[in-house]
Amino acid sequence: MELSSFLLMRHEISLLAIILLLIIAEIAIPDHKKSSILHLALLFFGIHTAVGFLPLAESFLFGGMFRSNDMIHFFKGILNIGVFTLLLQSAEWLEKNMLSQERGTEFFILLFASLLGMYFMISAGDFLMFFIGMELSTLPVAALAAFEIIKRESGEAGIKFILSAALASGVSLFGITMLYATNGSIYFDDILTTLTAENLTILGFILFFAGLAFKISLVPFHFWTADVYEGAPIGVASYLSVISKGAAAFILMILLFTVLKPLMYIWEPMLYLLAVATMFIGNIFALRQENMKRFLAYSSIAQAGFILLGLMTGTQLGTATVVYFVTIYIFSNLAAFGVVQAISTQTGKENMKDYEGLYRTNPKLSLVMMLALFSLAGIPPVAGFFGKFFLFTAAASEGYYLLVFLAVVNVTISLYYYLLVIRAMFVRKGEAPIPFFENRLYMRLGLLITVIGILALGLYSPLYDYIYQLSTFLN
Amino acid sequence: MDILSLFVVVPVLVILALVFTKDLRQARVISMIGGLVQLGMAINLLFAYFRERAVNDSVMLFTRDLVWFEQFNIHYNIGVDGISVSLILLTSIIVLAGVFISWKMEELPKEFFISLIVLATGVYGFFISIDLFTMFVFYEIAVIPMYLLIGIWGSGNKEYSAMKLTLMLMGASAVLLVGILGIYFNSNADGGALTFNILEIAKVNIPFEAQKLFFPLTFIGFAILGALFPFHTWSPDGHASAPTAVSMLHAGVLMKLGGYGIFRVAMFLLPAGALEWSWFFIILSATGVIYGAFAALRQTDLKYINAYASVSHLGMVTFALLMLNKTAWNGAILQSLSHGFMTALFFALIGMIYGRTHTRDITKLGGLLKVIPFISVVYVIAGMALLGLPGFSGFVAEMNIFMGAFQQDSMFYRVATIVSISAIVVTAVYVLRVVGIMLMGTVKNEAYNNLEGTTWYEKTGIMLLLIPIVGIGIAPLWISNLIMESLQPFIQGVL
C-alpha cells in the first residue's frame, strides 16, 4: 500500500491537521491575543473548503472499510461550505460570548471533530466505520449544545441530546449486530450479496434504521429536536439541523439504495408511513411556535419528511433529487438560522413577535430571511422550489401520486407558518421594532454565501445536471 | 433578444431600476415609463403577430426553445397565438392603468411598485410559456406578491384576507402540480420521451384512465384562480382588502390565468377527461354564475359587489369553455378580455370614490353624480358594459357564449344554459341598484359637496380601460378573428 493512496482521505487528513494546529495555537498564543484564533480557524477552514473541491479519485482503503467516490467527495464539499458559512455566521457570537471565557478554541475543535465524524460516516464501507463515524459526529455535539454553560437551557439541551443520542446509538448498534449475525460480515459489499429477508435481518434493519432516523429527526424519533434547538447556541442548532441532518440523510440514502436494496419491499412502505407522519406532525407543530429556534426545528422536521419522498424511490433520479434537495436545504436553512443568529447576537431577541417591523428598520436582513423562507416553502424563482418540484417528480415517477398529493398539501400548510414570519417582518409595524444595526463583515459574508446558493442552485441548471451525473454510481 | 422574452426582461429591468429609487416621485415615474414601454411592446407584438400570421401557419409564433433542465426535458419554451397576444395586450394596459391609479401611493412606494411589477412579470411569463414547468413557475411568481400587496398596503381585515388568498391560491397550485406531474409522466404514452412541452403532449394520446384522474386536478388547480364556485371564497375577501391597483390587476389579469390555463392545459391536453367530467364542472360553473349574481345583489360594500360580479362573470368563462364548441370558446376568451377591462375599471372607480368619501358602503353614499360627475358617468358606462348592453365588449362576449351554449341541444345543457342566462337579468338588477342608490338622488352627506375633482392621472387610467371596452364593443371582428383562427388547434385536438 503506497503512502500516496492515503490521499483518498484528503478531507479527513486536512481537517485533522486543522484540529491539531488549533490545539497548538491555543497553547502558543498568549491570552490577550486569543481573538486571533477565530480568524486563524476561519482561514484554515476556508482553505480546507477551497482545496476540498479539487478532484479526487474513486477508490477505497483498508480493504473496503473506507471508500470515496465523486458523489461522496462532492457532498463533503457541500458540508464544508455549510460549516464554513455557519462559522462565519457564528463568529461574532463567539467573539462576544466565548472568547471572553477563553473557550473559543474548544468550539472549533469540537465542531471540526464532529464534522470529521460525518466524513467517516458518509465514507464508510462497513458498519464498523459507519458506527464510529456516527458516534464521533454525535458526541462532540452534545458538548456543543451545552456550550453556553451560564444558561440553564443550554445545559438542559446538552443532557437531552446526549441521552437521546446514546439511546439511538445503542439501538442502532444492536441492529448492526443482528445484521452481522445473519450475514456474517459487516462489510457493505459482502452483505449486499448475502442479504436475505429473514426475520432477524428485518428486525436488525429496523433497529439500525431507528438510529439514523433519530439523526434526521423523523417522527417518531423527533422529540429531542425542538428542545435541543431551543436551548443550544444558535450556531449549534443550525449545525444540527443542517449539516448533521444532511449528512445522515445522505448516508441513509446510500445504504438504502445499495446494501439494503433487497429489503426495499420492507422499507418502501415504512418510509411511506414515516414520510406522511413526519410531514404532518412537523408542519402541524410548527404552526403555533413563537420562538424562532423552535419554529425552525419543526420546520426542519417537516423538511425531513420531504426528503423521504425521494428516498423511497430507490432510483438514480431519486438519488439526484435527494442530494439536490438536501444541498438547497442546507443553504436555505443556513440563511434562516443566520438571520436568527444575527438578531440574537445583537439584541438577544429570538421570538417571532420581536421580528415585527423588522423590514422598516433592517430591510436587508428581512429580505434574506424572506428568500430563505420562500426557499424552504418552495416558491419560485428561488432554489427551494426546484428542489421540491424535482423531489416530487422523482416520487411521481414511481407512481406515488397520492403521496405527492399529501406532500403538496403539506407544502401549503408550511406556507402558512412561513408567511407568519413574513407577516411579522413586513406587514406588521410592531410596537418596538428591533433598531437598525450594522452586521460585521463575517456575518455579511456568511449570509451572502447562502443567498448566492439559494438563487443560483435553482436557476442555474448545470448544477443539477452535475449532481445527476454524479449519482450514476449507484447503478 | 426575441420579441417575447422582452416581456420578462423589461419588467425585471424596471424592478432593478426601482431598487435604486429614493421616493414616490421617482418610483412612479420609472414604473410609468416601464408600463408605457410594455404597452408599446404589446401593441408592437400585436402588429408583428398579424404580419407573421399572414405568412406562417404554425400553432405558435415567435417561438424560442432553450433547454433548461435537460434531465427532465424542461425547456424555456415560449411562443404566442392569438389568444395569448390578446391577453398580453390586456395585461399591459391594466398594468399601466394600475400605475396611474397608484400615483399617490405614500407608504413604501418603491416596494409597492416592485411587488406590482413582479406580479405582472409572472403574468406575462405565464401567457408566453409553452412549457408546463415554465408556466407553473410563472404562475407561482404571479401569485406570491399578492400576499405582500394585500398585507402591507391593504385595508380592513387585511392580514386575514391576504393569508386566505395566498393559501388558497398556493393550495390550488399544489393541486395543479400533481396534475402537471400526471400529465408529464403520461406524455410518453405514444412511445416518445417524457416532455413538458404543451404542443408535443397535445399530439400524444394520453390513456383514458390517466385523463380521468388528472383532468379534475388540473382543472380545479386552475379554476380556483378563476374563482370557480365553491372555491371562490378567497376572491371577495381578497379584493375587498386589497389596494385599488392590486384589485385591478388581480381581478383584471391574474384571475384570467385560471381560464387560460383550463383551456390551454386541462382541456387541450386532456380532452377525453374534459368530456368525461364536463357535466360536473358545468354544474359548478352555472351555480357560480347565478350564485355570484345573487350574492352581488345582497352586498352593500362596493368592492364586495364587484368581487361577486367577478365570480359570476368568470363562471361564464369556465361555463363557455366546457360547452366545447368554437363559438362558445370564442365567447369565453372575449369574456376574459372584456371582464378584465371592465372589472379593472370598476375597481379603479371604486378606489377613487373611496379615496374621496372614505366609505364603500353604498347606503351611505348618494347623489354622487352631482358632486363627482366624471367618475359617476364612467361608473354608469362601466355598469352598462357589465350588464351586456350592445355597443360594449360585454355584449359581444356574452352573445357568443350563449349562442355557442345553445348549440348543445341535450336537456342538461339547455337547463344549465338557461340558468346561466338568467344571471344576466340579475346582473342588470345589481348594477342598476348601485347606480340608483349611489349615484342618483340627493347628496346624502354635506361634506360630499366639496369633493375633489378628477386628476389627470386618474383620467388617464380610466381612459386606458374605457377605450378597449368601447373598442371591442363597436368593432369586435378584428379581435374575434384574432382569437378564432387560434382556436383551430383546439378544435382539432379536443372536439
Automatic annotation (TrEMBL), chain A:
Alphabetic keyword roster: Cell membrane, Membrane, NAD, Quinone, Translocase, Transmembrane, Transmembrane helix, Transport
Catalytic activity: a quinone + NADH + 5 H(+)(in) = a quinol + NAD(+) + 4 H(+)(out)
EC numbers on record: 7.1.1.-
Any one GO molecular function term: quinone binding
Location of the NADH:quinone oxidoreductase/Mrp antiporter transmembrane domain: 124-413
Pfam families, sorted: Proton_antipo_M
Coiled coil recorded as keyword: no
Name of protein: NADH-quinone oxidoreductase subunit N
UniProt xrefs under InterPro entries: NADH-Q_OxRdtase_suN/2 (IPR010096), ND/Mrp_TM (IPR001750)
Family, per entry: Belongs to the complex I subunit 2 family.
Membrane topology: Multi-pass membrane protein
GO BP: any one term: ATP synthesis coupled electron transport
HAMAP family in UniProt: NDH1_NuoN_1
Summary of subunit composition and partner proteins: NDH-1 is composed of 14 different subunits. Subunits NuoA, H, J, K, L, M, N constitute the membrane sector of the complex.
Enzyme category, top tier: translocase
Purpose of the protein: NDH-1 shuttles electrons from NADH, via FMN and iron-sulfur (Fe-S) centers, to quinones in the respiratory chain. The immediate electron acceptor for the enzyme in this species is believed to be a menaquinone. Couples the redox reaction to proton translocation (for every two electrons transferred, four hydrogen ions are translocated across the cytoplasmic membrane), and thus conserves the redox energy in a proton gradient.
From TrEMBL, chain B:
Transmembrane segments: 6-22, 29-50, 74-100, 112-130, 136-153, 165-185, 213-232, 253-271, 277-297, 304-324, 336-355, 367-392, 412-440, 461-479
Protein transport as UniProt keyword: no
GO molecular function: NADH dehydrogenase (ubiquinone) activity; NADH dehydrogenase activity; ubiquinone binding
Membrane topology note: Multi-pass membrane protein
Keyword vocabulary terms for this entry: Membrane, Transmembrane, Transmembrane helix
Subcellular compartments: Endomembrane system; Membrane
Domain called NADH:quinone oxidoreductase/Mrp antiporter transmembrane: residue spans: 130-419
Biological process per Gene Ontology, one example term: ATP synthesis coupled electron transport
Keyword Lyase attributed: no
Superkingdom of source: Bacteria
NCBIfam families per the UniProt record, alphabetical: NDH_I_M
Family: Belongs to the complex I subunit 4 family.
Annotated protein name in UniProt: NADH-quinone oxidoreductase subunit M
